[in-house]
């Protein structure tokens, strides 16, 4: 007989309020039974979550989760602000908020240190000063990019962030639902600031060089101690974060030297710069424009052409557990593993946060933590 699960009172009406009304109407009888205490199986809940197009884990919340709307600034394609979230982005933000809340509660009773990066920059820092501070904390030489294979830059920077107690998550889908993909035209990354458990989420649908820059960009947001940037100064702060990230990834002095010695026309040099600095063509293009090596017309044309030909990395196939573990911060998984085995966190909560259930969760922990 399949194991049944308990759904807390009030969760079903809340789920109905955010789900597709037609789907709710179709499944009204079953939902009413669950709200009145009937206990479904995990398989039944899984089918219902797909029918209603809501995250599987929502059924296991203790209390309804308030939607976060309009308070975060998201790194989007072209760094354009969005005033409204799609359901996929909304649910991803809510999932990350829930994980961060768990992290706060889990570390509240311990002498958990402040993240070395959190809030270290201030309004008086110049671009150069800010980039030097972050570079020092991340233990990056000014020419760090020379020593890293281009396919490993993102994982290298992610590890540096995690070593500085920034929790980094990534995915190209909502939870484990492969039908709910995350659109890079809506957002490339976002950050949830906290002094002790800052969290960064990167859209894995993006190509790898772009993910590297997005991660650095969000680390600057953590360093200035803010995530609610929609309420004023948004453009200025976004520009600052972009400039600091660019200086870390493509230092101005090194770029000037490279460009001066480079061969070919401007397009050739941009391609070569992208390869040399292990960055995207768009970052190389903007760097060349802001340093005065190409004009605005060429910069605009290049960025337009890039936007029309964005291709994500091919992530199909591969080991399932490697894919899942890449989505989750390993420091988070270590804390979660300990908490579950000490009886402080319920398995159902752990399943919800990882989108892995039953034996799949156990196998994930074995694969990642040994």
**Uncertain residue ranges:** 67-74, 76-82, 228-233
Which descriptor suits the 3D outline? elongated
The percent of residues in helical segments reads 40-55%
| Strand-residue proportion | 5-15%
What string, H for helix and E for strand, traces the elements in order?
A: HHHHHHHEEEEEHHHHHHHHHH
> Got a strand count?
5
Q: C-alpha Rg, in Å?
A: 22 Å
Can you list the strand order of the major beta sheet? 1-5-4
Distance linking N and C termini: 31 Å
Q: Please give the count of helices.
A: 17
Derived structural class:
mainly alpha
- Largest β-sheet summary: 3 strands, mixed
Protein described:
The chain is mainly alpha-helical and 370 residues long. The chain folds into 3 domains: 1-64, no CATH class; 91-249, no CATH class; 319-370, no CATH class. It is built from 17 helices and 5 strands. The strands form 2 sheets. The chain has a 3-stranded mixed β-sheet with strand order 1-5-4, sandwiched between helices. The longest helix has 21 residues, at 87-107. It is elongated and about 70 Å long. Residues 67-74, 76-82 and 228-233 have low confidence and may be disordered.
Kindly list the characteristics that best describe this protein:
370 residues, mainly alpha, 3 domains, 3-stranded mixed sheet, two-stranded antiparallel ribbon, 17 helices, 5 strands, elongated
């Amino acid at each position: 007989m399949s194991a049944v699960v308990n759904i807390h009172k009030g969760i079903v009406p809340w789920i109905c309020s955010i789900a597709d009304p037609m789907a709710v109407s179709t499944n009204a009888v079953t939902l009413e039974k669950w709200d009145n205490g009937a206990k479904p199986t995990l398989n039944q809940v899984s089918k219902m979550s797909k029918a209603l197009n809501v995250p599987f884990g929502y059924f296991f919340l203790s209390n309804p989760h308030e939607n976060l709307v309009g308070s975060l600034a998201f790194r989007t394609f072209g760094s354009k602000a969005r005033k409204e979230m799609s359901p996929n982005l909304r649910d991803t933000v809510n999932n990350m908020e829930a994980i961060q809340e768990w992290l706060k509660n889990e570390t509240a009773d311990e002498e958990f240190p402040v993240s070395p990066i959190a809030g270290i920059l201030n309004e008086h820092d110049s671009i150069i000063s800010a980039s030097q501070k972050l570079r020092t904390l991340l233990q990056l030489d000014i020419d760090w990019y020379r020593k890293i294979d281009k396919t490993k830059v993102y994982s290298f920077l992610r590890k540096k962030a995690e070593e500085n107690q920034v929790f980094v998550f990534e995915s190209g889908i909502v939870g484990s639902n492969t039908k709910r993909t995350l659109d890079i035209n809506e957002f490339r990354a976002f950050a949830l600031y906290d002094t002790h458990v800052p969290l960064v989420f990167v859209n894995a649908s993006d190509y790898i060089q772009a993910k590297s820059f997005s991660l650095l960009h969000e680390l600057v947001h953590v360093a200035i101690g803010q995530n609610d940037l929609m309420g004023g100064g948004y453009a200025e702060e976004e520009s600052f974060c972009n400039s600091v990230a660019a200086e870390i990834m493509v230092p101005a002095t090194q770029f000037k030297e490279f460009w001066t010695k480079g061969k070919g026309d401007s397009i050739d040099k941009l391609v070569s710069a992208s390869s040399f600095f292990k960055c995207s063509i768009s970052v190389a293009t903007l760097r060349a424009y802001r340093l005065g090596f190409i004009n605005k017309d060429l910069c605009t044309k290049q960025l337009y052409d890039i936007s029309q030909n964005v291709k994500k990395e091919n992530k199909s196939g591969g080991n399932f557990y490697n894919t899942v573990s890449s989505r989750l911060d390993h420091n988070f998984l270590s804390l979660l593993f300990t908490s579950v085995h000490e009886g402080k966190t319920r398995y159902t909560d752990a399943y919800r946060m990882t989108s892995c259930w039953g034996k799949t969760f156990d196998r994930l922990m074995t694969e990642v933590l040994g």
